[in-house]
Design a protein that fits this description.
The structure holds two protein chains of two kinds.
Chain A (H helix, E strand, L loop, with lengths): L1 H9 L1 H6 L8 H9 L10 E3 L5 H4 L2 H20 L9 H10 L4 H28 L8 H23 L4 H12 L25 H6 L6 H32 L13
Chain B lengths: L1 H7 L5 H27 L3 H4 L3 E3 H26 L24 H6 L5 H22 L15 H25 L43 H25 L3 H34 L13
The chains are: A mainly alpha, B mainly alpha.
Chain lengths: ~260, ~290
């Protein structure tokens, strides 16, 4: 057995995949991080307090985990869902009643979405309370605020897709606000004076109609599944990169110039 | 009591119940750590500053956290189904129609302000204001550790904004608002036929100055008083500047940053002030103009 194992580990195929052995040495620990495309997001060594859940609450990392869960469950849901008003609700019924593990996937998607809104808010709360937005991390806070807005938009656009009463009325209430946009909404201050009508104002652009209808469903679907996740991913890349560039997780001593 | 259980056990409301406990727990924890740091004269975070290997120390924590979250999510998803109501029907408006829970703070704001403020201007100011925080907070202390005494103003302001004006309004919108967006206690049955007399008056009318004449045209005196109140409110910032500009903190802020901070602060404070006027004195508008009302 041992011999086979040794032979296997000496083979070209094995060596081409695994660049180092697993003996517990500091060198291997470092290589474990540096040689792995996913783990090399991390530095090799960090201060102990940065691993302390009591300090970080782990909320940023959990938010990212939930985003990944949402991406995976979301892709699965896309196999069963057509964003057209004739089909959308029927597809939901089908998913909830006849698809194996359909309800589980949908439930995970919805609850992870709610949870992500909560973890984003708590992450922001922690970052504020530890003053972690202070120099040199000012810009990363701004990126974080954009990610908060994107999270809310992702959640809001997803809310419409089941195409049930809860969905269209929640989105109707939400998007009715856009009527009142100053200058750009037909009921907003100076909107009418600028020629805004119900069929050409900012809300019309958002909904693709004068009320929440089939074009809105398609718009929100594309926004929810493609446009917003793409933008959010880009900002996430920047967010994580900046954490590294700004000296890692904030702390009383790591903020001094590198 | 029946209604309370119905509200709490509504699948979409469960995250809000969770949010309530998480926010209270984390606030308590953060203040516990902050006050401990303030009291003991050294920082717990600074004592844990030796460098350690990320593998396995951090990766292990991340792995356990991921496992923990996925177990909770899986159980949650097995036990409770996401809601799916009747098919969308644009001709049948449910009462109450509520926005998704994270926007209920904004929907609650609609009681106190017109939609252009509550739905558009305020959210924009919240977003821009949050982004501005790192640039207007010139206090270098409290960077990277829990503290309260070194950043009292910043922490109190953020906590009031987040805990009261955001989270508490979400809870209020979920559990205390029923049909017609009327106030109901959470344990009270929702009476869809409840009629509440509209007794709202404009601010100047509290002092006998009517906003409109009998022919519905605006009373210039009321408009003038309203304008003076709004401008006067924001010029409080200027008065404070004139009085305190030689203090160390305002000198450090400088004129521009001070004004941005003061504007954001006064705008945030306007919400509780308007809530107080509305709930206490039925005040609808402070300023009425042909184009917009505040």
């Amino acid at each position: 057995m041992l011999k086979i194992r040794e032979k296997l580990q000496q083979s070209e195929v094995w060596k081409s995949i695994f660049r180092h052995n697993y003996q517990d040495t500091n060198r291997n620990r470092a290589l474990q991080i540096v040689d792995n495309v996913f783990l090399h997001l991390h530095p090799v060594r960090i201060q102990r307090h940065a691993t302390n859940v009591g300090f970080t609450w782990g909320m940023g990392g959990i938010t990212f985990l939930l985003f990944i869960i949402l991406t995976i469950t979301g892709v699965i849901l896309m196999f069963y869902y057509r964003p057209a008003s004739e089909y959308a609700y029927e597809d939901m019924k089908y998913l909830m009643n006849d698809v194996a593990f359909g309800p589980l996937i949908r439930n995970m998607h919805r609850w992870a979405a709610h949870a992500m809104v909560i973890t984003v808010m708590l992450h922001m709360f922690r970052v504020f309370l530890t003053g972690s937005y202070k120099p040199p991390r000012q810009f990363n806070w701004v990126v974080g605020v954009l990610l908060l807005v994107l999270t809310l938009l992702l959640s809001f656009t997803g809310y419409l897709l089941p195409w049930d009463q809860l969905a269209i009325w929640a989105v109707t209430v939400g998007t009715n606000m856009a009527r009142a946009t100053p200058l750009l909404g037909h009921e907003g201050p100076f909107g009418a004076a600028l020629g805004m009508r119900i069929d050409n104002d900012v809300r019309f652009v958002l909904l693709g109609g004068t009320q929440v209808g089939p074009p809105t469903l398609l718009r929100f679907y594309v926004g929810h599944c493609i446009f917003l996740p793409l933008i959010a991913s880009i900002f996430m890349i920047v967010h994580f990169w900046r954490i590294r560039k700004d000296g890692g997780i904030s702390g009383p001593t790591s903020t001094t110039k590198e | 009591m029946h209604n309370l259980w119905e509200l709490i056990s509504k699948p979409d409301n469960i995250p809000i119940v969770g949010l309530l406990f998480l926010v209270i727990g984390y606030t308590w924890w953060a203040f516990h750590k902050a006050l401990k740091n303030d009291r003991q004269g050294y920082l717990d975070e600074a004592r844990l500053n030796e460098k350690i290997q990320v593998w396995p120390n951090l990766v292990r924590v991340e792995f356990l956290a991921a496992l923990f979250v996925m177990v909770i999510l899986l159980f949650w998803s097995f036990l409770i189904d996401a809601p799916l109501e009747a098919a969308a029907n644009p001709t049948l408006t449910p009462n109450p129609s509520k926005a998704p829970w994270y926007f209920l703070g904004l929907q609650e704001m609609l009681v106190y302000f017109d939609p252009w403020i509550a739905g558009v201007v305020m959210p924009s100011i919240i977003i821009v204001g949050l982004m501005a925080i790192p640039y207007i907070d010139v206090n270098e202390k409290g960077n990277g550790y829990y503290t309260f005494k070194e950043r009292k103003f910043a922490i109190i302001t953020y906590c009031v904004g987040f805990l009261i004006l955001w989270v508490a309004l979400i809870i209020l919108g979920t559990f205390w608002r029923g049909p017609g967006w009327y106030f109901f206690f959470p344990w009270q049955e929702w009476d869809t036929h409840r009629v509440v007399a509209l007794t709202n008056v404009d601010f100047t009318e509290l002092f006998g100055i009517h906003t409109r004449f009998a022919d519905n045209s605006l009373n210039p005196l009321a408009v003038a008083i309203g304008t003076i109140i709004i401008l006067g409110y924001y010029s409080l910032a200027g008065l404070f500047w004139l009085k305190r500009k030689n203090t160390e903190i305002l000198k450090k802020l400088g004129f521009a940053k001070y004004n941005i901070t003061a504007f954001l602060f006064l705008t945030m404070a306007a919400l509780p002030i308007k809530m107080f006027l509305r709930i206490g004195f039925n005040v609808k508008y402070i300023l009425v103009t042909p184009w917009f009302n505040i």
